[in-house]
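N-acetyltransferase domain-containing protein, Devosia elaeis. Tokens?
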Amino acid sequence: MKTMRQLAASQFESVAALAAGMAEIHASIAAVLAGVAAGAVWVDDAARPAVAIIEGPEGSYLLGKPADAVAAAIADLLDDWVYLHVPPGADVSAALPNRAMLAHPRLVFSLKPADLPVILPTELTLSADADAIGHRLFDGEMEIGRCLPDLVIGARAEIGLWVHPKYRCRGLGTLLVKTVLDAARAQGISRIGWHCHASNRGSVAIARRFADAPPVQALAYSASLPAENAGDLDEPPCRQFARHFEAGEAEIVWLGFHAACAWAEAGETGKALDAVERLARNGWQGEPGWLAHHWALARLQQEPRFAAALETLKKQKAPPG
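Tokens:
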């Protein structure tokens, strides 16, 4: 079996040509190769790399088309929980670290400032970050939304948005994005990217208001739901995802977490609770707060079985004595 070798930062230039296409879509790759962001690079051949893995601030990236001889080495290198962005059209199945990995269709938009009518509600406060680009919304002292640069490299940036679920569908996301795009332009940033799951209807709708071209279709793989918000996915595929994750629990205990999320999104509360209880029984090493605060499990918050499972997990995590 071939091996993947890690490059020193001084050798990153050797993958520039291989990375060029993906770097146009993912600024994280460009930032790592330029030394602007922390990251790591592995290649099949240091002198003439045909395949590479780049770890960056926004995930991991597979470059090239892995042949069977190197695919096993890549699968061995990657963590089971990796979020792996892959080249369009490449057959990467043999390079994935486990059989639970699901395809995550994604969209990448290029955004420009737009003269859209937005109104800041009088009860809310808009505050700029120290970088003069990112902005946050507050209701009193509670932060209820933010739009921040995920990374900046020269005149290029990628931004992300979050709005508290109780404050959505009020135009606040559009307000934040417009504000940040205007601020970025004032700072000399002319190229702004926006990445989201293809299933994220709210994010896609906001991006289309500012997009200067149709989105680029991208693809990633992860052993998790291909979604970011409750209701993004229909119930039938969620049932399929739940069974898919359950099938892998004997090998990877934490897949029960994602089975619980999938069952909850499928409207199967009892099966979601069963999955949470299995985590507690099977010695899952994750944090109880990950369950308590996950968007897909919000509907379980009032269930006594959910509370009891969280309490069991807290006791298991508590130091002895």
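The longest helix spans residues 172-186.
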